Amino acid sequence: MTVGGGRTVLTTGANSGVGLATVVHLARLGFHSVGSVRSRAKATPVVEAAAGAAVTVETVVLDVTDAARCRGVVDDLHPWALVNNAGYSGVGAIEDVTDEEARHQLETMVVAPMRLARAALVHMRAAGQGRIVNVSSIYGLTTTPFSGWYQASKHALEAASDALRVEVARDGVKVILIEPGGVKTHIWEEMEADLAGRIGSSYEKQYRRIPTLLSPYRAVMAGPDTVAKVIGKALTAGSPRARYLVGPDAPGFVAAQALIPTAVKDRIARFLTGL
């Protein structure tokens, strides 16, 4: 397939999960697919996956919290599209998360995507077209205990994306949100590692319940390829939607958010987590 026409797409966080599936899928669609990784060693999975799919994916070393490097990479590539995917779980009760941890999560998952978008807009505006795809989550639409700062990041990304979408529409640039439900990636192992590091917390007993609660949920999670295909759709559609829910669980979460009273949701959350 050559629908991409060789146009350059930069995808951040490309060494695993949704990012890795995305750079390979976009290369299959005929885009000049470029994936950012935080170190040269992390480029190896990208190279191997691309070779296995018989496609070419370029990699660039980029820490999205490095403002100067962000500008440099974007100015070198002049991307037609940007897929902001980089992020991490950062699980912990609000009371247990330090200021430094919270700032780093917001920097990585809110400030950095908007910084990259700002840099890319210079080139997109000059070309009279472009697309910015921000990988959010159903956690940008709802909240649960023990993921407050992750959810705050996704809520903020949703708000910033909504504002940006209207601001740049006159320039031919489309801003699109991807909102997956649960996805089978390494983020769940990262979450368990985060929780293991909260030893001594007054919530330690509740933390130990989370893996058990999530175990049956994993059976209905979407695969990274499912999200990658929706991102590909957002980049190839003539008139992409502002939002794409992804996964069998996502519509249910959104419906519950709208239909179930807050007091009832709180009681359910407390019952499930033992709070």
Keywords:
275 residues; 7-stranded parallel beta sheet; single chain; Rossmann fold; alpha/beta
Topology:
Layout (H helix, E strand, L loop, with lengths): L7 E4 L5 H12 L3 E6 L6 H9 L5 E4 L5 H11 L3 E4 L14 H29 L2 E6 L12 H21 L4 E8 L6 H10 L7 H11 L9 H13 L6 E4 L3 H10 L2 H12 L2
Parallel strand pairs: 1-2, 1-4, 2-3, 4-5, 5-6, 6-7
Under CATH, the topology is which?
Rossmann fold
Task: Count helical runs.
Answer: 10
List the uncertain runs.
Answer: none
Mean pLDDT: 93
Strand elements, count: 7
Could you give the distance between the termini? 51 Å
Structural class: alpha/beta
Kindly describe this structure.
41% of the residues are buried. The chain has a single domain, classed as NAD(P)-binding Rossmann-like Domain (Rossmann fold). 50% of the residues lie in helices and 13% in strands. The chain has helices at 17-28, 44-52, 67-77, 99-127, 148-168, 187-196, 204-214, 224-236, 250-259, 262-273, and strands at 8-11, 32-37, 58-61, 81-84, 130-135, 173-180, 243-246. The longest helix is centred in the middle third of the chain and has 29 residues, at 99-127. It is α/β, with parallel strands linked by helices. Helix 1 packs across helix 2 (44-52), helix 1 packs across helix 8 and helix 3 (67-77) packs parallel to helix 4 (99-127). The protein has a 7-stranded parallel beta sheet, with helices on both faces. Helix 4 (99-127) links the parallel strand 4 (81-84) and strand 5.
